[in-house]
Known about the structure:
The two termini are 32 Å apart. The chain has two domains: 4-210, 2-enoyl-CoA Hydratase, Chain A, domain 1; 214-268, Lyase 2-enoyl-coa Hydratase, Chain  A, domain 2 (Orthogonal Bundle). The protein has helices at 28-40, 65-68, 73-91, 108-114, 142-150, 152-161, 167-172, 194-210, 214-227, 232-246, 250-264; strands at residues 4-9, 12-17, 48-53, 58-60, 97-101, 104-106, 118-122, 126-128, 165-166, 178-180, 183-184, 190-192. It is globular, with a radius of gyration of 20 Å. The strands form three sheets. It has a six-stranded mixed sheet with strand order 1-2-3-5-7-10, sandwiched between helices. With 277 residues, the chain is an alpha/beta fold. The longest helix has 19 residues, at 73-91. The chain contains eleven helices and twelve strands.
Amino acid sequence: xxxxxxxxxxxxxxxxxxxxxxxxxxxxxxxxxxxxxxxxxxxxxxxxxxxxxxxxxxxxxxxxxxxxxxxxxxxxxxxxxxxxxxxxxxxxxxxxxxxxxxxxxxxxxxxxxxxxxxxxxxxxxxxxxxxxxxxxxxxxxxxxxxxxxxxxxxxxxxxxxxxxxxxxxxxxxxxxxxxxxxxxxxxxxxxxxxxxxxxxxxxxxxxxxxxxxxxxxxxxxxxxxxxxxxxxxxxxxxxxxxxxxxxxxxxxxxxxxxxxxxxxxxxxxxxxxxxxx
Length: 277
Ligand code: CAA
């Protein structure tokens, strides 16, 4: 692939959008390659994914403005659908996806981060939906996911004013969970860049998720995502089904068995190696 790279670290897959010259902007080719990359993830050996952008400056600076500039109405709608199809694939992907936002997350960049389960960022990150300044609406789910994530009032303010926000404000309004800065030693030398610290934190979080019972984690993702779309009665019924589906799995027996064993004898094995079965 030209613009999307995949790396496997134990049970964690790292997907990097690598079109640094254009600040990792999403053109049709990048969207196609992203879709193919997600389709190719081996769910037997991968339990969590990290999505990031190449370089230190930008996660994704939006959909490709050059490509969009000459689209007809019908082509605009089709381009929106192309992005939405890929982002829906990410959102409903069976295993969790962590967005490690290493810089600009504007327009389609903010939108792709919102299709991920969890967002963390470096302190140079900047989030925004600048589309109305370009004469369009957000087109890859921004009008929908931003309102669901941070509330309609704040989402409307961000979208109508096209104002970009910095990492600390994104954290304050709940758009990202954590912000990482560079590490500097006593002499003032940078010993780890913000991106390095961000990726280390993303990997630590992803490995922590990968160590949990995989069927249970997948069912939690499904329950939260599907439950948010329906009323509370239907939502708890969705949870009941997914909760029930965990029973009689090897991992449920191993997880609960381990707890019960520990109660009898605290020296007994504490780490369960879940089998995804
Ligand atoms: N599309 C295409 N190319 C882009 C791009 C984008 N969204 N964002 C940046 N680039 C390109 C620039 O054209 C430039 O290319 P050249 O070197 O060939 O000229 C290169 O990336 C570097 O960009 P800048 O020189 O502009 O870098 P900067 O540091 O001065 O500014 C920036 C960085 C503030 C992010 C600025 O590039 C910018 O404002 N980019 C556009 C951001 C934007 O409006 N995104 C929303 C797009 S619309 C959208 O996403 C619709 C949707 O919902 C689907």
